[in-house]
Design brief:
Homodimer. The radius of gyration is 18 Å and the shape is globular. An 8-stranded mixed beta sheet has the order 1-2-4-3-5-6-7-8. The protein has one domain: Alpha/Beta hydrolase fold, catalytic domain (Rossmann fold). The longest helix has 22 residues. With about 300 residues, it is an alpha/beta fold. The protein is about 40% helix and about 15% strand. The structure holds N'-Formylkynurenine (NFK). N'-Formylkynurenine binds next to helix 2.
């Protein structure tokens, strides 16, 4: 491998940048252990409905937690990461308990992974899931809907935002108040040079077509309905320089080119993994944002 390719490989390997452990393997092992335990705890303790099918394939399922809360409770929706090829809904239920204690329901969205399906298909799955969630929020008369995604999940949530048709023609979409994009990738073109692309098989055309940074967001500013949407782009001070740049560049595009209410939050002392492990803690930055900053 050339020097340049090795650099890309390193920049796009989040576990190599955590200062908390001596090897990348330890970072990942610790992450999977923490999120698995917190997810099991959520299933044991919080009233739920699991494995709700939002589409025909085996990955298209979601879980609703906090089913005993008032119908009009706010809803937090979470999309996990793993470069569209690893992790699962079953071990991504860790944000549930803190939100439940704050009277907020949580919906965990699952999806099929590459190479079983293509990235284009995953994007469509997440948009189907968003349609399901918007209509559920409408049926429940929910006071507010908040979407968050981590890493590849932040990319997928961005692909909900760039879909004008979905946002304008789905009942309940006007209940979307906030979007949190955590340590995401918004420009996929450099991934082609890395091993991340092996199961994805992106080429120049598909990588550009699936890059949220190249999309149009005019509809968000133009529509009265979406005034309320705030987009928080969140990245760790211990994410790689390229991940930090991806967040900064996307934030600039959203707010300068399209006038979206976008905020850039660089989290001191957090890396690619504890930035979401923190969501399992009773008080955390997202719960704070949702409970205090988004009044009806
Ligand atoms: N092989 C990767 C794993 C990884 O990127 C990852 C792991 C868990 C959650 C998100 C991840 N990255 C992007 O979605 C790494 O080097 O850390």
């Amino acid at each position: 491998m050339s020097e340049e390719v090795l650099d890309f490989e390193r920049e796009y390997s989040p576990s190599r940048w955590s200062p908390r452990f001596s090897t990348p393997e330890q970072v990942l092992q610790n992450h999977v252990k923490l999120v698995t335990e917190a997810s099991l705890d959520a299933v044991i303790k919080i009233p739920h409905e699991l494995d709700i099918e939002y589409g025909p394939t085996s990955g298209q399922k979601l879980d609703i937690f906090g089913t005993d809360l008032p119908n009009d409770a706010r809803i937090f929706v979470y999309v996990h990461g793993g470069y569209w090829q690893e992790l699962s809904r079953e071990i991504s239920r860790y944000p549930v308990k803190p939100f439940y204690r704050g009277g907020i329901k949580t919906i965990i969205i699952g999806y099929d992974l590459c190479p079983t399906v293509t990235l284009g298909e995953i994007i469509k799955e997440i948009q189907n899931a968003a349609k399901y969630v918007f209509e559920y929020a409408e049926k429940m008369n929910s006071r507010g809907l908040y979407f968050a995604g981590h890493s590849a999940g932040a990319h997928l949530v961005s692909k909900i935002l760039d879909n004008a048709e979905l946002l304008q023609n789905t009942s309940g979409s006007n209940r979307l108040h906030g979007v949190f994009l955590i340590s995401g990738v918004y420009d996929l073109r450099d991934l082609i040079k890395t091993t991340v692309n092996a199961p994805l098989k992106l080429n120049e055309t598909t990588a550009a077509a699936f890059s949220p940074i190249l999309s149009n967001y005019q509809h968000i500013r133009d529509s009265d309905v979406f005034d309320k949407i705030r987009v928080h782009i969140i990245v760790g001070k211990h994410d790689s320089p390229t991940f930090q740049k991806q967040s900064r560049d996307f934030w600039k595009v959203l707010q300068s080119n399209f006038g979206v209410n976008a905020y850039l939050d660089i989290m001191e002392n957090l890396d690619h993994f504890d930035i979401v492990e923190a969501l399992g803690e009773l008080e955390n930055y997202l719960k704070f944002f949702i409970s205090n900053c988004f009044c009806d």
